[in-house]
Write a structure and sequence with these properties.
15 helices, 4 strands, 399 residues, globular, four-stranded mixed sheet, mainly alpha
Length: 399
């Protein structure tokens, strides 16, 4: 585990871009009122506790299944495995996904109720339940397919399955990134191409100035669920696209939308998606090796062997533990990439005051803590804090 963490951290240092100018130190009170900060922190604190409760609940369920597995259920699964090994693994994996997911539904409902209370969530409960059911079906389908494939590989290569898994992970990631925008995302939202007009002209102008082949530019109907605002780059090859929330287009000024677009174009120009994929591919062998060792330690030689249904709870717990540690390390790379994208947007547009106004509005719209505790940002944040991003714009304007 220590070696895996060291390898992952070393790859972050190797792959992360050079840091732009350090952000200026600016007081939160200059840009947000005490009431705005208190409201955001009260909401964020509760949401964090609920999220931690969900992680603890899932971990506890997996620990119980590893320590005291339902003997009858796993005996039936093991018998089925002798006749149809892939099917038995698939059924157990789907069951694990549904059990842990359903157990967390009350916490997710509480989190959603709090988001409704602050005006962030807008979707009716019926729509929320429908999306949750779709998510369960999709998650169970993918985990069952993965478990069936894992069982087949582990039975034939009981000591080297981790190496085969490491080699296959980049291919799976590429497939999901390629098909996700056109197969999975439309299940939950409607995406429409940005229509001709000022906004589209701005995008094309910025893309031309930055030398970026942007692909498609789409608007997603995020307002059917939230008043929050965001934008992102997704897809590979002919599915590559920049996606803007409709709430962004409706509530932000054209100059602020240009800044958001410039930020997303920076990710395309610098191939940031490929950078993160490269990090994941390079760290995969160490990660899957750690998962193998930890899952074998958790399962114990007398309980289950790799490739059998009884081994899956230990494998799921090991994946969760190693994945959590990897996420903390990967966030360091993500924050540096986002800092560079902000710097690119400022250079491309030359509008630091609009950038500051945009960051203020984003924080208020998304009910986000503008200056969270540093340790929490280091552990869980994929982006710099709002106050650091404002500080970057201040540093740019001072320059």
């Amino acid at each position: 585990m220590t070696g895996t963490a060291a390898a992952a951290q070393g790859l972050v240092w190797l792959l992360r871009p050079k840091r732009p100018r350090a952000p200026a130190r600016v007081p939160v009170s200059t840009y947000f009122t005490a009431a705005e900060v208190a409201r955001a922190r009260r909401f964020a604190r509760g949401q964090r506790l609920i999220a931690l409760g969900g992680v603890a609940l899932e971990g506890t369920l997996l620990i119980l299944l590893v320590a005291r597995p339902p003997r009858r259920g796993f005996r039936l699964a093991e018998r089925a495995a002798r006749a149809r090994p892939p099917a038995a693994n698939a059924v157990v994996a789907a069951s694990l996904t549904l059990v842990t997911g359903v157990a967390q539904l009350p916490l997710r409902a509480i989190s959603r109720k709090r988001a409704i209370d602050v005006g962030l969530a807008t979707q009716p409960w019926r729509g929320w339940a429908s999306d949750a059911a779709k998510g369960f079906v999709i998650s169970a389908s993918f985990t069952s397919a993965g478990a069936a494939l894992f069982g087949w590989v582990a039975r034939r290569f009981p000591r080297r399955w981790w190496l085969i898994a490491a080699a296959g992970m980049p291919a799976v990631e590429i497939l999901f990134l390629w098909l996700g925008p056109v197969v999975l995302a439309p299940i939950f939202n409607r995406f429409t191409e940005l229509p001709p007009g000022e906004a589209r002209d701005d995008v094309l102008t910025l893309a031309g100035r930055s030398g970026v082949e942007v692909g498609g530019v789409f608007v997603v109907d995020a307002s059917r669920r939230t008043t929050g605002t965001n934008a992102f780059v997704t897809g590979l090859g002919n599915t590559k696209r920049v996606v803007l929330y409709d709430t962004l287009m409706e509530r932000f000024t054209p100059a602020q939308v240009r800044l958001v677009v410039a930020h997303e174009l920076a990710h395309v120009k610098h191939r940031d998606l490929l950078r993160s994929m490269l990090w994941a591919a390079l760290v995969a062998p160490a990660g899957t090796y750690a998962v193998r060792d930890l899952s074998e330690l958790l399962a114990g030689p007398a309980k289950a062997t790799a490739g059998t249904p009884g081994y899956l709870p230990a494998l799921a717990l090991a994946l969760a533990i190693v994945g959590a540690g990897g996420g903390v390390i990967a966030n360091q790379l993500s924050r540096r990439v986002e800092e560079r994208a902000d710097a690119f947007a400022l250079e491309l547009t030359g509008e630091p005051l609009e950038f500051i106004a945009m960051e203020q509005q984003l924080a208020l719209t998304n009910v986000a803590d503008p200056d969270p505790p540093r340790v929490l940002s280091w552990l869980a944040a994929s982006h710099p804090s709002t106050i650091d991003r404002i500080g970057a714009a201040v540093a740019y304007s001072e320059r």
